[in-house]
Amino acid sequence: MTKYTQKFKLDLIQEYLDTGCSQRCLENKYSLPKDTLKKWWTVYNLKGPEGLKLRHFKRKFNVDFKLRVINYYLNNDVSMSKVAASHNLLCSQISIWLKLFMEGGSEALKPKKKGRPSKMSKMTKKDARKILKKESDEIAALKSELRQVKMERDILKKSLTLFGPSKTRRKQ
Question: H helices within 20-124, ranges in order?
Answer without folding.
Answer: 23-29, 36-47, 63-75, 80-86, 91-104
